[in-house]
Amino acid sequence: MARRIPLPVWLAVGLVLALVLPETGWLSPYILLVITYVGINMILAVSLNLVNGYMGEFSVGHAGFMAIGAYTASVLTVWVFPRDASPVLFPLALLAGGAVAAVAGLGLAFPSFRTRGDHLAIVTLAFLMIVKSVLENMPSLGGPRGFMGMDKLTTLGWVFASVTGSVWLARNLVHSRWGRGVLSIREDETAAGLVGVDTRRVKVVVFTVSAFLAGIAGGLFAHAIQFINPRSFTLLKSTDMLVMVYLGGIGSLGGSLLGATVYTLVLEGLRPGLQSLGIAQEWRLVFAPLLLILLMLKRPLGILGFREFRFLVPRDEREKPGRQAERKTP
């Protein structure tokens, strides 16, 4: 029987390909941009799945965290960092964007102590509207016209590294003591508190980590398209994230990766299809809400709901007899 190739080897190969492929000229700029979008959406789906899938809450304001990270990273690379040093300092800009978004996530965690379900969805929607309104009324950041001047610093290498780091962080959180607390909140928050789970602290950790990852995705997005405005981070953007999470499967990191890939490629594939039929490309935006409705009716758990790819489960967890029956790994 052939030995399995270790995961670090696959990651090393992936990193080499991410660094080499753009330099070969084999892929068109459009294909490279689509791959970049896939990676960014993977980070967004993983981050939102921590709240909506693993913890069982319902957040619709995730685009707000993405906006905060995008604007923070952009301001640093355009106004603060020396222009010639921006490529070297770009990781710091991404981390700063994630950190500021995490602070916002920390603030949003407190209303979740008293609200849940539909009420929390309204709170997160209000948060998204506040972020968008504040950005629209800040002339220093371009207001409704948007902010520009960023160099194209988002490369496949940085995207690959960010996706790998995000999945690693989320996996370690899910399979830690905190992760068990997260799952207990999803099953029954009251019962979790009665058996000693500090539900408030767990919620703070999950909201903060989720917002941090969304902020990093926002920084990558801003430096990929080199222009952002408040209309880039509306409820429709949050709807895209919801579709990716519920398409791939709630409570599954592998599902988030799969859902982000499938959804992004299908949405981009609709461009030439609609154009060939003489239909405006804007109609493809109707696809996301319709797909979300169909998912809720036909397959609410998604493709890999509550299941996980084997390589995303720690070895000690895979070897537990009880866990093998509890968690199926395709």
Keywords:
single chain; 330 residues; mainly alpha; ABC transporter involved in vitamin B12 uptake, BtuC; two-stranded antiparallel sheet; 2 strands; 69% helix; globular; disordered C terminus
Structure description:
The chain has about 325 residues and is mainly α. The protein has one domain: ABC transporter involved in vitamin B12 uptake, BtuC. It has 14 helices and two strands. It has a two-stranded antiparallel sheet. Helix 2 packs antiparallel against helix 9, helix 3 packs antiparallel against helix 4 and helix 7 crosses helix 9.
Please give the structural blueprint.
Layout: H1 7-24, H2 29-54, H3 62-80, H4 86-109, H5 118-136, E1 147-148, H6 156-174, H7 177-187, H8 189-194, H9 199-225, E2 227-228, H10 235-248, H11 253-276, H12 287-298, H13 315-318, H14 321-326
Helix pairs in contact: 1-6, 2-6, 2-9, 2-10, 2-11, 3-4, 3-5, 3-9, 4-9, 6-9, 7-9, 10-11, 10-12
CATH T-level topology:
ABC transporter involved in vitamin B12 uptake, BtuC
Q: Per DSSP, what share of the residues sits in E-state strands of 2 or more residues? A: under 5%
| Chain-averaged pLDDT | 90
The CATH class name reads: Mainly Alpha
Shape: globular
Low-confidence stretches: 324-330
Lateral strand order in the biggest sheet: 1-2
> How many angstroms separate the termini?
19 Å
